[in-house]
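Need residues for this backbone.
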C-alpha cells in the first residue's frame, strides 16, 4: 500500500485499499473520494443508510460524515483521495453549492464511472509523487489536478437523476450562507447549540437563517444541527471506549441523563443499547 501526503497533510492519496480497510478513519476533516475498480464495498453512512459501491463507481463521503465499513470483498481494488475541507472549499469555490446539495441534502454518495475515471489513478500517482522530489511547480500541479477532478465529479453530480437544481428563487447569497452554515457545523466540537449561535457567527438573524435553510435545503437549521449532533454521537459510541457520561460531557450536554434521553428520542434506543447492538454486529 502506498500512501502519499501532499500540501502538508491536507491531501492524502492511497493507491490501494486492499490492506487499508478502515474507511471509518477517513472521517474527521477530510472529504473522501474512493474509486472502486474491482470487488465490492458496502458501507453505512450517517449511522443508518447503507451504500453499495461496485467496480467502476466512485464513493463520495463529505467531511464530518460518519462512515462505517460493513463489507469489503477480499478481491477489492480501490484507491482513495482524501481532501481537507479547507482545500476542497478553496478549489470548488462557486461550485461548492453543487457538492453541498448532492452530498448533504440529496445524500448522493455514489456516482457511476465515466471515461475520465480510467486515467485518474495513474495520473494521481504521477502528480502526488512529484511532491517528494520538490520540483518548482509541484504545488501548482497538485492544485490543478485536484481542481479538475473535483469539477468533473461535480459535473457527474449535476447529471445525477436525483439531483434537482431548481434554484431560480435561491440567490447566490442564500446559497453561500447555507454553505457557511454547514461549514460552521462541521467545525464545531459541541454542535448542539441554539440557532442564534450560528446565526450570530454568520452575521444574520436566526429567523433569516431558518428561512435560508428551508429555502435551500428544505430542512430547518434545528434539523441540520440535530443530524450533525447524532452523527457525532454515533461515531463516539462506535469508535471509542468512552463512557456515556464522558461522551455527554465532550458533546456539551448538561448531564448524561439528558444525553441519553436526547439520543433515545432521535435513535429509538439508548446510547448503551446502540453501542451493544453495534458490537453484536461486529
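Answer:
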Amino acid at each position: 500500500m502506498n500512501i502519499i501526503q501532499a500540501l502538508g497533510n491536507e491531501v492524502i492519496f492511497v493507491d490501494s485499499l486492499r490492506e487499508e480497510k478502515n474507511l471509518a478513519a477517513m472521517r474527521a476533516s477530510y472529504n473522501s473520494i474512493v474509486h472502486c475498480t474491482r470487488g465490492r464495498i458496502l458501507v453505512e453512512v450517517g449511522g443508518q443508510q447503507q451504500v453499495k459501491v461496485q467496480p467502476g463507481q466512485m464513493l463520495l463521503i463529505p467531511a464530518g460524515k460518519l462512515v462505517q465499513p460493513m463489507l469489503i470483498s477480499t478481491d477489492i481494488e480501490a484507491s482513495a483521495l482524501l481532501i481537507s475541507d479547507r482545500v476542497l472549499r478553496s478549489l470548488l469555490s462557486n461550485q461548492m453549492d453543487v457538492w453541498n446539495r448532492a452530498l448533504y441534502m440529496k445524500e448522493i454518495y455514489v456516482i457511476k464511472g465515466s471515461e475520465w475515471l480510467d486515467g485518474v489513478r495513474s495520473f494521481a500517482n504521477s502528480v502526488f509523487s512529484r511532491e517528494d522530489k520538490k520540483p518548482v511547480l509541484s504545488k501548482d500541479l497538485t492544485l490543478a489536478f485536484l481542481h479538475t477532478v473535483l469539477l468533473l465529479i461535480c459535473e457527474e453530480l449535476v447529471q445525477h437523476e436525483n439531483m434537482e437544481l431548481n434554484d431560480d428563487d435561491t440567490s447566490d447569497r442564500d446559497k453561500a450562507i447555507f454553505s457557511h452554515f454547514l461549514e460552521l457545523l462541521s467545525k464545531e466540537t459541541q454542535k448542539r447549540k441554539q440557532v442564534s449561535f450560528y446565526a450570530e457567527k454568520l452575521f444574520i438573524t436566526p429567523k433569516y437563517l431558518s428561512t435560508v435553510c428551508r429555502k435551500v435545503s428544505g430542512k430547518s437549521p434545528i434539523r441540520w444541527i440535530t443530524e450533525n449532533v447524532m452523527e457525532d454521537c454515533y461515531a463516539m459510541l462506535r469508535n471509542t471506549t468512552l463512557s456515556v457520561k464522558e461522551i455527554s460531557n465532550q458533546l456539551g450536554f448538561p448531564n448524561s441523563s439528558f444525553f441519553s434521553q436526547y439520543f433515545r428520542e432521535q435513535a429509538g434506543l439508548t446510547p448503551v443499547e446502540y453501542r451493544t447492538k453495534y458490537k453484536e454486529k461486529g
